[in-house]
Amino acid sequence: MLTTGETIVESGLDGAALKPAECDVSRAVELPFETVAIDYEGAEHLPDAETLARIATEKEVRLTTPVRAAGFDPLGDDARYDEIPGGVRRVAVAGHPAYLSDEERRKAVAPRLKAAVERDPTAWVGTEGVERLALATGATQFELLSRTTERDLRALRAAGFDGELAVYAPTVLTEDEDEVLDAVGGYVSRRGPVADALPEGVVEQGSTAHQTESGGAATDADATGRAREVLSAASRDYALVGASESVGEQVAALKDAGADLVVGYPARGIAEFVG
Prior knowledge:
CATH topology of the largest domain: TIM Barrel
Mean pLDDT: 91
Number of helices: 10
Distance between the termini: 14 Å
Helix content: 25-40%
Strand content: 15-25%
Shape: globular
Order of helices and strands: HEEHEEHHEHEHEHHEEHEHE
Largest sheet: 8 strands, parallel, barrel
Strand order of the largest sheet: 1-2-3-4-5-6-7-11
Number of strands: 11
Oligomer: single chain
CATH class of the largest domain: Alpha Beta
Number of domains: 2
Structural class: alpha/beta
């Protein structure tokens, strides 16, 4: 029987993405990867400099920095840049609206992404919602896995893009359908094409599935009927799902299409990735 570490290695993943609101990111040193990305979930969840520096002594650490957020704005308030240890690299992103104020959301993204990459030429650039702007920077593209990712990667390579391409993918190392939906059902329900395909009344809030007063369906393991069918199929489009060998085949397909790195987010918790 494979150990957790051997299972992760078999998956073919190159790194892990951790959410500081969900886990103790200092456990990143236990992960069997050289690369660890730390997502931004608001200033209150930003790991302190000492923790980041400690992880960076053993891993390549990439910290998500929303270029419109106070403290990370390369054309404005950039005070938090100076608090990031020198060994920590960046993933420059436009920033999820949920973690930005109204004023921050109104800021122009393009000049800030450009300035962020000029400031840190080793930065990756998150492409979600700003694909053309990200591509214009020439930096490593950090793509969010979707049903079109393989096609998009091939198109970029065919067009002559020879820069680095990395893919971010929620990962669930099981074939148990209930566990898959508990882990990523809510997440995939928020993808535009999935939301459009779901029956009216399906609702997801935060990380918890809810039922509406009018009888709306859940997005987790309690989902039934058409909603369950849509969510199950979408879980395979927007996440890496299955036994480690199966996930390894999916990762290999992404690399065949042009990806250099595939970074998995442990959707069932960091314990699934720790060896």
